[in-house]
Write a structure and sequence with these properties.
Layout (H helix, E strand, L loop, with lengths): L3 E2 L5 E5 L3 E6 L11 E8 L5 E7 L3 H15 L3 H27 L9 H11 L4 H11 L6 H12 L9 E4 L6 H9 L7 E4 L18 E5 L9 H10 L1 E9 L5 E9 L2 E7 L6 H4 L3 E4 L4 H15 L5 H17 L4 E3 L15 H18 L7 E2 L6 E4 L2 H18 L5 H16 L4 E2 L1 H8 L3 H13 L3 E5 L6 E5 L4 H25 L1
Parallel strand pairs: 6-11, 6-12, 7-8, 8-11, 13-15
Antiparallel strand pairs: 1-2, 2-3, 3-4, 4-5, 9-10, 14-15, 16-18, 17-18
Length: about 500
């Protein structure tokens, strides 16, 4: 840049022997098809200044400006024309250099030979999922043993043909955002997009393949309602398209199609399960552990950090290894030869979509174990693929059991958590009935929240209102204390039956 001074981003300066030009507001880095600027032009050592808005890529506009400048500040048209051409070239070069800088901000790490060998050895290790879960804990994710592994595998699926999605649910301050962000740290930076606030149309202006096989993290779904529709389309159809009106260089109006392609894996957090039903139907629902045991684990870890007794180097090494593992995984087709024998429990709601999630999760485990599978080739198409094993299905069943249990429940997660706490309280105190005031006092729940819980429980017949024989006042009673255990047992039996069927078929 010989004459262009961009020190002030809102007022570039361009000076030649004859003219001084200020570019008010700088230049826009997007819309490379135009170079619209607001210029302030004056002759050297002259106070007469012409201000004009012009697209420097529009020849007609530039030629009119040349004549206007020559007439207003009394200078030759050839001098003005040459100066504007040189300014256009320098602004164009500057804008392209800035775009290159922006693209190079996210650096893609190159694995060394040693790092690659260690990562491959890890991927080939026995009990891979167990060792992965241990590494996740070493990286600083405390507790949430099932959720953290499930979330990591869901994030891993972004590189597969059938990515999975998840929504973390819990009360305010329960740690759902913390869990999502800590597990997301195990994914390389260039393979994820973190969103705090995004406008409704922003998704359509990503480059066509910019989001392909990326992990999209939404910190708070409550603040991203405007983008939920295009996100759902991206999840279901794997591409979104928007038609907009555009003017070309000649000023002619035409329509253009903005297309962004997936597939993507989407993760978000919210306190309001029912509001995002359309999104939750497409996602695994992860209910945050809000037990006192989990509280103790986290607070103990916080005390260790404060005391300087946490091995930060070990956490970083665990994080780096899991990131390196992610970089080695390559898209490969997964075939599950046992899929026809896998039937969900009849108690599961919306079984079609849940069945898809179940099969895709098994595929995600197989995909993660690709270094332990022999690559096979389709005889007709020559396409490469790997196959699911019975072990993959058994491990998937163990991890996904809680998800299927929640999918089979007729009440929301928050209400279910309350009901189980209520049952524990009643069992501990050897009583069968309870009052609102008693529960508010002992379980420390707000009156309005408790009223909403009881409204849903009464509607679904989980509790009933009865009259106390002694006091003649009304109280509540749990209809069936063992209903959740029975539901859990039903799911266990159903999953076990599937494995027995597969084993029997394999022997035959």
């Amino acid at each position: 840049m010989n004459n262009l001074n961009v020190t002030n981003p809102n007022n570039y300066q361009y000076a030649t022997k004859h003219l001084e030009i200020s570019i008010l507001g700088g230049v826009k880095l997007n819309h490379l098809e135009a170079l619209r600027v607001t210029l302030g032009i004056n002759k050297v050592q002259s106070e007469i200044k012409l201000r004009h808005n012009v697209d420097l890529y529009n020849d007609n506009q530039v030629e009119k400006l040349v004549r206007k400048v020559a007439e207003r500040i009394e200078i030759g048209t050839s001098v003005v024309r040459k100066t504007l051409q040189e300014l256009t070239n320098e602004l164009e070069q500057y804008r392209l250099s800035q775009l290159d800088n922006d693209e190079s901000e996210i650096t893609i790490k190159e694995l060394s030979t040693v790092e690659e060998k260690v990562a491959i050895k890890f991927l080939k290790s026995k009990d891979l999922l167990k060792r992965t879960n241990e590494l996740i804990e070493q990286s600083g994710v405390i507790g949430e043993e099932t959720n953290r592994l499930l979330m990591y595998l869901i994030f891993t699926s972004r590189k597969s043909y059938n990515p999975l999605h998840c929504i973390s649910l819990g009360s305010s301050g329960a740690g759902k955002t913390h869990l999502q962000s800590k597990v997301a740290e195990l994914i390389p930076d260039h393979e994820k997009v973190e969103i705090t606030v995004l406008s409704e149309n922003a998704f359509y202006y990503f480059n066509r393949t910019e989001l392909r096989n990326k992990l999209i993290l939404i910190e708070d779904l409550d603040g991203a309602e405007s983008v939920l529709y295009p996100l759902r389309e991206l999840q279901s159809k794997r591409r979104i398209t928007k038609t907009v009106v555009h003017k070309d260089r000649k000023g002619n109006t035409k329509t253009i199609h903005l297309t962004v392609e997936g597939p993507v894996s989407v993760a978000g957090c919210t306190t309001q399960e029912s509001i995002y039903e359309d999104n939750s139907n497409r996602s695994f629902l992860l209910y945050i552990d809000e037990s006192s045991e989990q509280d103790q684990k986290i607070m103990y870890y916080q005390r260790l950090i404060s005391a300087g007794k946490v091995n930060i180097d070990a956490e970083l090494k665990a994080k780096d290894l899991l990131q390196n593992v992610q970089m080695l995984l390559q898209p490969v087709k997964v075939i599950n030869p046992y899929a026809e024998f896998l039937e969900l429990p009849q108690s599961v709601f919306k079984p079609r979509r849940t069945n898809t999630h179940y099969l895709q999760f098994i595929e995600a485990i197989t995909f993660y174990k690709q270094y332990q599978r022999e690559k096979q080739y389709d005889q007709n198409t020559g396409e490469e693929y790997i196959e699911t094993t019975i072990e993959d299905i058994e491990e998937a069943n163990e991890i996904i059991k809680e998800v299927l249990l929640r999918k089979s429940d007729t009440i929301t997660g928050a209400v279910r958590n309350y009901l189980e706490r209520l049952k524990e309280y009643l069992t501990k105190n050897t009583q069968t009935t309870f009052t609102n005031a008693e529960i508010r006092r002992n379980l420390r729940i707000k009156e309005s929240t408790l009223r909403n819980y009881h409204k849903q429980l009464l509607a679904e017949d989980y509790i009933k209102r009865i009259k106390n024989a002694k006091t003649k006042s009304y109280c509540f009673e749990v209809t069936d204390v063992n209903e959740y255990k029975a539901l859990k047992s039903q799911i266990d039996n159903s999953l076990r039956h599937c494995i027995e069927q597969i084993s029997s078929q394999s022997r035959n």
